[in-house]
Amino acid sequence: MTLSNTSCQSPRIFLLIFLVTAGFVARSAGETVVDLTHAFDAQTIYWPTETGFVLQKGPAGFTERGYFYAANRFAAPEHGGTHIDAPIHFFKAGQTVDQIPLSRLVGDGVCVDVARQCSADRDYLVTVEDLLAWERDHKTSLVEKIVFVNTGYAERWPNRAEYLGTAATGRAAVSQLHFPGLDPAAATWLATRRHIKAVGIDTASIDHGPSRDFGSHVNLFRHNVPALENLAALVKLPPVGFRVAALPMKIAEGSGSPCRVVAIIDE
């Protein structure tokens, strides 16, 4: 099946996209829908140098005509909360948010659990060996999958100190970041040897906290593989047997965007 940015033929995919608006966990027609998205509010975690999410309350109440009306405004950086990194974020020739094909954002998913390793090491790097071991254990290839990495860090949200390794903000706080991520060599392997559609993680960055050259971003994005960051509830997913829809706000020329991410688990 071929997907484009403007059309989608499969009824199952239509159902999946429709269910994006469901709650945290919903059930429909023998399927469980899991919301992998943190809500956006004043507690939403952003990079220490960013201002965060701001909701500006507008009018709310009954009008002189008798109907209720409410409307707000919001302001937010592209990168923060549950969001997508478009390849242009770290690769000049990479795709912008609006250029990412839907075929990369909808498809079969897998979940690689490295929570045990990350519990022992805040700065753990997920290696090629971890991914190969997962394939052997589950007798499943990562080829053309949407690959989620469960570090267990979603359980620390929204405690900034626990989640990021520091509660500090500002430029100086960047050097204090400590959380797990993907080894740059593993990023290259996923992009070139497994040709994955996208990768997602339940930390603030696909690179681990101490990174200064963001090699995993660069190595993924040079191959136009987008990254999903700050995912929620990965602990609710099985290793295999689910489909994913990751639908960002379609920001023209955007380097990233808030993203609603859901998984549909076959029962």
Task: Please outline what is shown here.
The protein is α/β, with parallel strands linked by helices and 267 residues long.
Q: How many DSSP-defined strands?
A: 15
- What would CATH call the architecture? 3-Layer(bba) Sandwich
Low-confidence stretches: 1-9, 20-25
Helix content: 10-25%
- The whole-angstrom Rg is 19 Å
CATH superfamily: Putative cyclase
In total, the number of domains comes to 1
Going across the biggest sheet, name each strand in turn: 7-13-12-10-8-14-15
CATH class reads: Alpha Beta
Outline type: globular
Q: What is the subunit arrangement here?
A: single chain
The pLDDT mean sits at 92
CATH fold-level assignment: Glucose Oxidase, domain 1
Contiguous helical run count: 6
Strand and helix order: HEEEEEEEEHEHEHEHEHEEE
Structural class: alpha/beta
Separation of the first and last Cα atoms: 23 Å
Question: Mind describing the biggest β-sheet?
Answer: 7 strands, mixed, barrel
- State which percent range the strand residues make up: 15-25%
